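Thread amino acids onto this structure.
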């Protein structure tokens, strides 16, 4: 008796599905776990004159793609703003829910039965996410291409706005949500808002090519030479979940303690 190639593929698919779900013992459909925690990121870009001699990069809209991918893969929110003479301005925001999780089961037939609903929800999620990303990219392009006529640099106004965004409570993600502020700036504050704290508890990363922290040194930020390096670190932290943030804080505290003893 001849067996068609379609039948062979179907049987192989059933065997693969069955082997992937063997860790479950009830036979019902299970969801494949998301390997990263949802993340909220505030990205503030300095467009003032001092960036010319502190080697602070100016980003293009396409440079935001790595952070968009993090939000798309893990779920979360990205807020984009500028550091100018009046930095406490509304952020351009992109919020994406987590992608639907593919069903798995000990019984391959149950997994196959749940597959159409998953495919439908994923198609809807992809369409909605693509539209949200398109709108965000358009608004980000307008923001980044706006001419800069800043007379001074209001760094603390940017911190205030970013922390307000990062401190927002979220009923969907709750305590699982990690929070990051990435400031592409030299930190040279010379006008505007007085120094403020970051009660949101977000981690702060500062990016420039001169190792300058300026006013932001009091917030004990992480330092990066390039935006790409900072974005990779945020992505890796999201992939490892909130435990990685505790490890970063502990490592920083150890380093600080070690320096204080020398």
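Threaded sequence (262 positions):
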């Amino acid at each position: 008796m001849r067996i068609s190639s379609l039948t062979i593929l179907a049987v192989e698919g059933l065997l693969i599905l069955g082997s992937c779900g063997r860790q479950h013992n009830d036979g019902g459909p299970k969801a494949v776990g998301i390997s990263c925690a949802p993340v909220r990121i505030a990205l503030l870009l300095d467009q003032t004159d001092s960036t010319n001699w502190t080697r602070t990069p100016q980003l293009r809209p396409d440079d935001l793609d790595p952070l968009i991918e993090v939000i798309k893969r893990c779920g979360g929110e990205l807020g984009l703003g500028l550091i100018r003479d009046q930095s406490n301005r509304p952020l351009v925001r992109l919020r994406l829910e987590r992608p639907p999780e593919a069903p798995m089961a000990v019984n391959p037939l149950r997994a196959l039965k749940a597959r159409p609903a998953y495919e439908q929800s994923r198609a809807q999620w992809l369409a909605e996410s693509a539209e949200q990303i398109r709108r965000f990219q358009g608004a980000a392009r307008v923001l980044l291409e706006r001419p800069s006529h800043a007379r001074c640099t209001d760094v603390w106004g940017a911190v205030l706005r970013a922390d307000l965004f990062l401190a927002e409570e979220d009923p969907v993600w709750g305590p699982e949500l990690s929070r990051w502020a990435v400031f592409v700036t030299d930190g040279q504050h010379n006008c505007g808002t007085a120094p403020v704290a970051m009660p949101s508890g977000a981690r702060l990363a500062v990016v420039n090519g001169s190792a300058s922290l300026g006013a932001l040194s009091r917030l004990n930020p992480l330092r990066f030479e390039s935006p790409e390096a900072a974005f990779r670190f945020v992505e890796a932290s999201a992939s490892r979940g909130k435990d990685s943030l505790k490890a970063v804080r502990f490592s920083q505290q150890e380093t600080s303690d070690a320096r204080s003893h020398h």
